[in-house]
Amino acid sequence: MTDTTRAPARARAARVTGTVRVVGAGLLGSSIGHALRALGVDVILADASPAQLRLAIDYGAGRPAAETDRPVLIVVAVPPDVTADVIVRELTAFPDAVVTDVASVKLEPLRELQRRGLDLTHYIGSHPMAGRERGGAISARADIFVGRPWVVCRDEETPAADLALVEALALDLGATPIEMTPEEHDRSVALVSHTPQLVASLLAARFADAPEGSLRLVGQGARDTTRIAASAPELWVQILGANAGPVGDVLAALADDLHAVAGALRDPETPGARRALADTIRRGNDGVDRLPGKHGQNRRFEQVVVMVDDAPGQLGRLFGELGELDVNVEDLRLEHSPGAQFGLAEISVIPGAVRQAVDGLTARGWKIASIPS
């Protein structure tokens, strides 16, 4: 079996020096462990579940904790409802270490810590904008942070050396550190992460009782818009509860928009109804245009759709021949209709490479299903 948890062989020295303690051996904690260990960092793991801890250690995410451990950095990667408790425990047990957490909500844990009157000088909240639909140590990957934003919530009392250590962690994992206040972070993730989860779940719920014949027509659009609906309900109840206010505000505005669109659809012949629909789609276009692309760039790509036979090695051959044509694949989506003996590979390339890709692949016998107009 191919080991997908490990990063490529070490190519540079780690910025983080010393031992890193990771508390929580689930998806994020184990992924951090794998990435740091690939750089030669000593990683110790702790988890409330002995079985989860043993599994993460077996997969190579770190080693068991020892009484003599003196970590320089502690990463708390536990569910939001126990984040504050674990931070308190770690700050108390290791007063000389810098403690950060990777919880997806920042303001509520900070307020809880402040209510307890703890010295938070060496605590810095942070949050990598990375993850997968499946959790646990078995799903961990060393590369899930690469190219992703890593929010760091410092304040005026944060020592420069502590901030540098947390930012070094993000950089070692291939992420891009971004400074925000906890309030800014929670409002931002309400819009770009938490509300999309709810919208995807609500849409996917429509499929639960849909006729089987309808579901046979599902294409890539439905899969794209509902992919994250496979996420764990237990975790998301905690996340949404901790960020209820900002998420509720976004949902209320979205509900107003949905109400207006529904009204236009009930009587599309009403003056202005068709314009309302067109404006809705256009605003969506504007929003998509603002989303950062590969490596955070606002760079647009064109899509070339290639028919790929449903046979071993075909996708690898496609990538290999694109490499021979000196065409870089910026992104990839695959669609496979039920019962079809081929799939559709939507390859994203820079606009200047479209003709080169189409002509080169056609000459090599590939069938092009769609090219940019």
Automatic annotation (TrEMBL):
Residues 18-295 form the Prephenate/arogenate dehydrogenase domain. This is Prephenate dehydrogenase. Gene3D superfamilies: 6-phosphogluconate dehydrogenase C-terminal like domain (1.10.3660.10), NAD(P)-binding Rossmann-like Domain (3.40.50.720). It comes from the Bacteria. Belongs to the prephenate/arogenate dehydrogenase family. InterPro entries: 6-PGluconate_DH-like_C_sf, ACT-like_dom_sf, NAD(P)-bd_dom_sf, PDH_C, PDH_N, Preph/Arog_dehydrog, Prephen_DH. The keyword Oxidoreductase applies. Pfam families: PDH_C, PDH_N. Pathway: Amino-acid biosynthesis. It comes from Microbacterium memoriense.
